[in-house]
Amino acid sequence: MTWIVLRNPNAGWRGPSPAVIEAAFREHGISAEIHTTQTLGDVDRIVAREHRAGRTKFVAAGGDGTVHSLVNALLGHPWETPPTVGVLPLGSGSDFLRTFAIPQDWRKALTHLIGEDLYLCDAGRIEGTFGEHFFVNVADIGVAGAAVKWSGRLPRIIGKMRYTAGFWIALAGFPSRQVTVETDRKTIDAKAINIVVANGQFFGGGMNIAPQAALTDGLLDVEVFTGQRRQAFSVMPRVVKGLHLRHASVQTARSERVV
Description:
Tumour Suppressor Smad4, 2 domains, 4-stranded parallel beta sheet, 11 strands
């Protein structure tokens, strides 16, 4: 069956043209249709059209934002057969792929679309005043979310360092807040600077934020970063390597539901 490739030309860096991507698929004997998207509306329209046509195989050609957009468009429709999602890492961040140990080189990643080795993957659902959204990697609220906004303002030329730089800029003026986090087995009451709800392991350009997370266990890994801003200087280096879970300022839980 043909792969429907959604290419985001605004993701990260100036990636290969549609013709180059299509040629790479042909070299491996893979049937593909390349669609360039400019807006979220484009993604929604393409997915809706292909859903009506009975297509079930899609590729996000971009970064984690492109994956997020595609997943939300897909889960907005009922499927008799769960759709298959592949990823070509063409963005500034491709953290979702890291959990699968898929190469960050898009040509090497493309070879993983050959054959029938499929992995069922959980998706998280977020409900709020904004409506309903889905995620397959990591959701967070607090200084990490502010870091994403800051990183979007920084020059793309610094690549994966944008998130790290954005984090330290955001941290400087970010206050800790009293929070209550309810999970299946326990409630966490604390003054926190960040809350992470993870399905996948990595975020922020390769930081191993949830080293014990599994995409198929039906559970979300919850991490509440408590304490003051200054503790980030000791916690962040550990986050990079996934060694932060035993730090006194990090409270953890696993749960199907988080409030």
